[in-house]
Amino acid sequence: MSLSKEQVHHIARLARIAVSDDDVEQFAGQLSSLLDHFSTLSAVDTEGVEPTAHPLPLGNVMRADEPAPSLPLEEVLANAPEHEDGYLRVRAVLE
Amino acid sequence: MTAELWRLTAHEAHEGLRDRQFTSVELTESVLARIKSVEPRVNAFITQTAELAIEQAKEADAKYEAGAATPLTGIPVGVKDLIVTKGVRTTAGSKILENFVPPYDSHVYEQLRRAGAVMVGKTNMDEFAMGSSTEHSAFGSTRNPWDLDLVPGGSSGGSAAAVAAGECLVALGSDTGGSIRQPASLCGVAGMDPTYGRVSRYGIVAFGSSLDQVGPIGRDVEDLATMLDCIGGHDERDSTSNPEPMPDLRHYLGREIEGLRVGVPKEYFMQGMEPGVTTRITETLALLEDLGAVVDRELSLPSTEHALAVYYLIAPSEASANLARYDGVKYGYSYQDGSSMWENMETTRGHGFGPEVKRRIMIGTYALSAGYYDAYYKKAQQVRTLIHQEFQEAFKRYDVLVTPTTPNVAFPVGAKLDDPYQMYLNDIHTLPAAVAGLPALSIPCGDSDGLPVGVQLIGDFFQEGKVLQAAHALERGMPWANRLPQL
What we know:
The complex is a heterodimer. Chain A is mostly helical. Chain A contains 3 helices and 2 strands, in the order αααββ. Chain A is 35% helix and 4% strand. By secondary structure, chain B is an alpha/beta fold. Chain B has a single domain (1-487), classed as Amidase signature (AS) domain (Amidase signature (AS) enzymes). In chain B, α7 (221-231) packs antiparallel against α15. Chain B has helices at residues 10-18, 24-42, 50-65, 107-114, 157-165, 181-187, 221-231, 275-290, 307-322, 341-352, 355-368, 374-394, 420-424, 431-436, 464-476; strands at residues 45-48, 76-80, 118-123, 170-175, 190-193, 213-218, 261-263, 294-296, 400-404, 440-448, 451-459.
């Protein structure tokens, strides 16, 4: 398994992480090597085996739908890089 | 007397507080002085909270006066820096959360405060708990108190080192693939990863949500039981918190283990293991037999070898989704000087995350992407089922499984930093129980050339009591128990 630089660029784009050319060079080697090690799984017979998403699945977890106070707006927004009139402020999504 | 109070375990300190031999303020001052003296060398904390600790210690002393104290009242604790604490910066070891001050408390911190525990600081960790050496922290690496040139393990290396160095009496860590047990082993202290769902994840910075679990690190087994009694139990704010009733775990301590059925899986004794580790584990098994346990060394769990690949596909996949929230919009570091929203977001994440976090997000993104999902993510989940089934079969015949916690003792700072796979191999013995969601702990069982060796005990779901019972019996027979490093 060998990831090309183009593939690493594509994955970084999917993950929304800016990468430098040096990063891409390094990640291509490291990620390829890891995927090689992990490819041992392909030899395991898993015909008809259900996947496990959760070690102890709990179904339909509900609690009483009772109104309770939310966190104070000013405390929540205190961590926001930019906010205005009680809203988070973002750059235009469509330009 | 007060000069050396930091040497006490939590249960010893509780007795002293209860009998009015000293106050929590005196105990806390002793610990704060110890921090001042050793912290420049150990770097176990990202944020110290000395003033807050003294305030909380005064409240604790009032509780003792009022007869309202419980075993953790007035006890100085360290809290891993991915456990959110209202008004106290919580970074998860990341530059992206360098200035994040949570507006609410996590469930586990609420429980500690309700019990009257005293927080002395937020402990260092690998960024977002991704690492096995605490070198992947944006706030500098933590050093092993037994030898400052060595790593303490990780990702809860700050918590383990702080307990070993006497910078707190007990600490909270979190375990996703071994992040409590492995550093506990390398630092010569005790640490437990409870059954998945035993402890609420409300207010824990998420890494791998089907694996993450908070647990205690302490100097002995009794302190583990006391801490888990405090933080465990159902919490409706975490939908994966299990409603299974929580027994009084301290009740299991001091019981005999005559007839305890112990399985020793052969797959955990591999080529390349440090001879000193093998020797100590062999002695530990002999001690279990002396105590009346029935030890079967012929158990085989053949899927063990696949746990590493399973874990390092599933945890990064979950992480790639969980860490999507760090977008520079809602909280955390934000790059603002780009020409578009996307450029800002990508640069925020490019600058804000360290290399190991980027690697894991990218592996996870790849494993979940179109065309590769079945070959990697789904395949890993299927093999996860096989690992789970093998454990369930084993627990029909055994009460606990015993293995080395790690194949080697602590290694030098920098030795494995450039080779992610070599770093991942540190977790090889702690990953299977994590993948299966089983309770497991590590306690010190001796040394190899002066460095601590840990033994791991794994139990069936919700059998923390049985695991603690066996570990407590072992601990009392071990010369290593409760030794402190020279610092």
